[in-house]
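Re: the pair you flagged

First of the two:
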Amino acid sequence: MISADILASYAADAALGIEGVRGVVEGSRPRHQGVKVVTDDGAVAVELHLAVDWALNVPEVGARVQMRVAEYLSAMADLTPATVDVIVDEIGPPPEGV
């Protein structure tokens, strides 16, 4: 079994590969460094706290992150997460002149 910290690192890497994702940010639980992985009865749940760019379709970006994280964990850890929850905690500033 791969540790939750490694799975969290994989999930963060996958999320950062999506256009418009500015970064992983600490949510209300700072010790998780923006990604929380919980295993319960063999099922893995992932929660990501993200910052995204201004003027994006946030639900669309969230859906792309969910899909990418699931694909990445499947490829890297032979694991299909039960859930991938995306929480947008920050939206970047508007471009100058907007």
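Second of the two:
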Amino acid sequence: MPNLKYYLRVLSGMSFEKFSEVLERTHKFSGKNKLWLTLDMIHCARKFGAGYYDYLTFGFWDLTDKQRATYVTRVVSKKLITHLNDESYYHIYDHKEEFQQIYHEFTKRDFVDCRTASKEEVRAFVEKNPVMFSKPAHDSSCGRGCQKIDSREYADFDAFYAALPELDAWLLETLLVQHPDNTEVYPHAMNCMRLITLVASDGTPHVLFATQKFGLNGRVVDNYGFGCRVDLQTGKICSPGVSGDGSLGITYDEHPMTHVKLVGRDVPCFFEACEMVKKAALKIPQMRYMGWDVGITPDGPVIIEGNNYTAHDFWQLPAQTPEKQGMLPTIMKLVPEFKR
């Protein structure tokens, strides 16, 4: 039974306006009667801890209860994270500069925190890296506030330095060069993989799922693009791309800008990336369930960031799970003491 306190909190924060919107979209996608859908949504919330977005995103109207029980829903995801991750370590992943310091062997790039570094230290970094990638020190989830900056566009270093607060560019990083195989698909961003790791009860790290993301519309981050499932055994893309909002029902057999075909394409350095994140997963034993964004350079994989709250939806989307099986059985084999 899902955690009662969390479930009640979800219900208390429920927006009936949003529910009506989701119900309308679900009716449109499924063709099912709205009353039937409403009753079935209530059933799924009670029995599986599924929010109405879960119901829409996973296509629950088309699944049996036996199939639904295999999905990591919103409530189950929260319980899983609470079980496997120690909240007192979350600050490492919320603060980008702290993450860079602790995981530097895996991020493999220079950086400078403009809030704590001297002006001369920032100058030295900029002289070495005139074009750089910047992040706000906090609250840059989903790529918000991230940007590519060319210091040469300013009159001099003093002008550039003075502009940093307005740019909200507090963490400056070496601009990574992308592997040419991924540049061929989308050249404007570092197209990252999202690799989900879980450290099993016996202390062994596992990669649960892999998604190769690609950017869209000229954005310099791959957020709000789409992701393709990667076969863990072959390292090849094995599903069409699915929009960042899987509930929109948008899929891609090819990249809409470059028209590169996706399914069957090799992901460069895939197995090397898997070994890297398994090592990173053991860095802090108190954080057993993580989502890693990994960029591929010509010299191999690098970790872009770690996510202590990895989204539960994008790795169970209908277009990528034709077997209609969620990830919960896999997780429970590795963590048998976890109870949904």
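The chain has a mean pLDDT of 91.

-B.
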